[in-house]
Amino acid sequence: MMEEVPTSVLSDDPCHLGEGPTYDLSTDTAWWFDIREGRLFEAHLGSGSIRVHALGRMASGLGRIDAARQLIVAEDGLYIRKLADGALTLVCPLEADNPATRSNDARVHQSGTFWIGTMGRNAEAGAGAIYAFHRGKISMLFPRITIPNSICFSPDGATGYFADTARAVLYAVPLDPETGLPRGEPDVLLRHTGIGGLDGSVCDVDGQIWNACWGAGRIDVYSPQGERLRSLRVPAKQSSCPAFVGPDLSRLLVTSAWQDMDAAARAADPQAGCTFLLQASARGRAEPDVMLA
């Protein structure tokens, strides 16, 4: 059964490809990207004010370093971004010598290690990978990924999750909770069937996995054993990624996209690309800061 939960529009500025939402509890600020248009959204939830920053490049993920700096995952590398003026400084390249790829899904582990996915710009088979940025160095974890998504972590930090949307598979990986690095090989947690595909995910305080089902306009909630527990409607077909937001982390921000929709499809899906807030009846966890060294 599809649940209809109280839902509001946080931003009606439609994203070509909305992705990478995260939330800074210390400032009550949500951040997310429009990958295709190179835009970074900043929304102060308490006041309702929203700013849009032009990045000059495609970017897809963000980790808070401290009150003054963020680490941005972009198409050609990782950049420190100063909040004061938006200045970007390259920390390390990421597939910068391969113009056929770009960054995609990303999330920070409790240890401060940043997991980052890359993919072909046209979703070429096996062109992407998943990396870990750990204490200032980047290393490849899993190669030959087509569309990396659903990067998230169990509350104890001992399990990592990721999906290859093209394969319709969500994987679970045993991790060292102190480093966020794998202790073993990925195992298949679930195989998605039916309408839509596995897109971005986030874990709540109970370890349940909240997944945006691209093409189905919903959020699916899975147990750590891979059992689907709930499905919540999202008022845009291409729901792309969730994040828990708000002072008590009880609301779910969900990005969406109008990518690959023609005029008729957009007319039939008028809120495509909008960013939504859902009353989740669950609690998230505060996102950890990324560690540079």
From TrEMBL:
Pfam families: SGL
Gene3D superfamilies recorded: TolB, C-terminal domain
Domain SMP-30/Gluconolactonase/LRE-like region: 17-257
Protein name as catalogued: Sugar lactone lactonase YvrE
Similarity comment: family membership: Belongs to the SMP-30/CGR1 family.
Species: Bradyrhizobium japonicum
